[in-house]
Amino acid sequence: FADRDGYIWFDGELLPWRDAQVHCLTHTLHYGMGVFEGLRAYATELGPAIFRLEEHTKRLFNSAKILGMEIRHTPEQINQACIDAVRANNLSSAYIRPMSFYGSEGMGLHADSLKTHTIVAAWEWGAYLGAENRERGIRVQTSSFTRHHVNIAMCRAKANGNYMNSMLAVQEAARAGFDEALLLDVDGFVCEGSGENFFMVRNDVLYTPTLTSALEGITRDTIIQLAAEEGIEVQERRITRDEVYICDEAFFTGTAAEVTPIRELDGRSIGGGKRGPVTEKLQQRYFDIVEGRDPSHSYWLKVVD
Ligand code: PMP
User: Fold this and answer.
1) Which SUPFAM superfamilies does this entry report, sorted A to Z (predicted)?
2) Which residue from 18, 166, 278, 283 could staple onto 194, CB 3.0 to 4.6 Å apart?
């Protein structure tokens, strides 16, 4: 992935892709203390448009604040860096990855001599959980790995180190032949996927877990707003694993995963094993908005011209 043409924004400069390197003593590589974001730009009639850019940048700065890291750029500069990364690579649609990390200025855990560096990369990335699964839905397994405890990892932060837990879970699920993992929280309640928030529908009500150790997803927030507009009742509350077994519909949300139906959990078919009508409606609205066909939320799109 390092050996390709293109440009990566690195501490304020657009560097040729192959030259955007760090040293092997990069602090974040050793201890995982870093923060990142994932955004998408969609191809629209007006050109590539970044979805909810300001909210993602805000979350990047909030993540850094939680970890006590100081990003040496302004939110406006990071917004512009995301735009520049899409433009410099001539992308019509893109996945965008800002990351702030500690450099190789020292090794101690105090991190007092360290500088925070920031990169923004952008590349073409199709449907994360498979294009055909947007309609067909995915097969999910409850993970044997528990999601973070809120006082062990800082779950409001999209922090690099938090993803060790996600990788353990998704790799375990994949080895067992499933598409994705569903992680439970320390109390045994449904939390989220390895990189997605969770929703389910029962008796026409949309439920999503309260945010304890799940990430405060921007797609989650989008879906909650769209459901309200559609007159669908939304409740945030604790959800048990057995409730999911008997729900009418379930789906994951995330920038990479978008809106992906879940057709099976632990060998139990959900909603007859296919995408349900509420999922389909919300998914349709989501894609109409992000791809610029529905102008009702055009303020969520930042056109890269
Ligand atoms: N949970 C986790 C653990 C994630 O990594 C992501 C992806 N950022 C999400 C939820 C969904 O967040 P968003 O909708 O902001 O992409």
Assistant:
1) D-aminoacid aminotransferase-like PLP-dependent enzymes
2) 166
Pocket of ligand 1 (CB under 6 A): 38, 166, 192, 195-197, 214-215, 217-220, 253-255
Residue among 158, 274, 281, 302 flagged as catalytic? 158
CA 240, distance to chain mean position in Å, is: 23
Q: Output the CA 184–ligand 1 centroid distance in Å.
A: 16
Q: Answer yes or no: is 295 within a domain.
A: no
Q: What confidence score (pLDDT) does residue 305 get?
A: 86
User: Residue 43 maps to which CATH number?
Assistant: 3.30.470.10
CATH of the domain at 176: 3.20.10.10
Q: Given this model, what pLDDT does residue 77 score?
A: 98
Give ipTM to 2 decimals. Answer: 0.99
Task: Indicate if 75 and 99 belong to the same structural domain.
Answer: yes
pTM above 0.90, yes or no: yes
Which stretches does DSSP call E strand in 113-257? 116-123, 138-142, 180-184, 190-193, 197-202, 205-208, 233-236, 249-254
* Same domain membership, residue 116 and residue 160: no
Split into its structural domains, the chain has a count of 2
CB-CB contact of 3 with 18 (8 Å) = yes
Ligand 1 centroid to Cα of residue 257, in Å, is 9
Contact 268, 241 (CB under 8 A): no
Identify the domain containing residue 81 by its residue range. 7-123
Whether 83 and 143 map to the same domain: the answer is no
Quick check: is 128 in a domain? no
Closest C-alpha residue for ligand 1 atom 9: 196
Protein residue closest via CA to atom 5 of ligand 1:
195
Q: List average pLDDT for each run of 10 residues in the chain, which is 305 residues long.
A: 97 98 98 98 97 98 98 98 98 98 96 96 92 95 97 96 98 98 98 98 98 96 98 98 98 97 98 96 98 97 95
CA of 105 to the centre of ligand 1 (A): 30
Catalytic residue at 158?
yes
